[in-house]
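re: ur question from earlier - yeah i can do the single chain one, its not a big deal. heres the input i used so u can compare w yours
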Amino acid sequence: MQNARRLLLLGPLAILALHVVAAADQKVLYEKRSPYNTILVTEDDQGLRTLFFEKGGVRQSVVKVGDPDHIELPYARAMPVALALVDHPQRILVVGLGGGTIPSFLHKHYPQTTIDAVDIDPHVVAVAKKYFAFREDSTMRAEVGDGRRFIEDCRKPYDIIFLDAFGSESIPYHLATREFLLAVRRALTPRGVAVGNVWGRSSNPLYDSMVRTYQDVFDELKILDVRGAGNQILIALPRKRPIRREQLSQRATAISRENNFRFDMGEIVRYGLRSAGETNSRGRVLTDGDRTDKTD
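and the output i got, formated as tokens:
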């Protein structure tokens, strides 16, 4: 279960810098305590609906209902860069549904692609459907369950796996370990790519260990710095493949134009793509058996 022992806690300064508090003029549409979070949905005067997992917490999702092309949060515009590494993805998995921003956006532009989303909290799935216009159909569905178990039980691999599961402040520990990432690697097709959303070093005491753990499991790792946010996107491949910034940015721009995206993924690549470099000696490989970084 997702609990305090499994959370990677952020420092207080990072919380102040990166959290966005629901403004006083925002209307609260929904508030309820679930087994995992305090779910809060607000709406502003522009029609933007925001999902929080605690009052005054991180914006988990921001959605303009009825407009899946509107991507408000910078990290959510960066994660789809993975599309430039996989030609015509047939199967996509999103771990961490939130308000359904990423799966809904992908479904709009890749309606024939099978898109599975999994979230441990049934209340989050219900809220995504009721308040954020997330809709299931023949090619997109939401599963209630632990993302790790879902991946470990995977029998048909995915071309892209997006890892975007957060609690109120951080990633559940069991979704950051070597054992979990090995299961992710097994759940990818040979041409596949895993994309992880993590907080950067300034706000995540285990950032270097997360990077090192990805390096330990995958053959290729790139890091995408997100402009205007504390997020960093880890792009991991189960094979050696040189990823050159200019080549990837050109491909990302072409995909953005072909699909009439409202943002240029190529510009995101040009701004933030960098190599993970050699093995990160500042961190350690995170394992299921290592509990020294968890709190009671």
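The radius of gyration is 18 Å. not sure if urs matches, ping me
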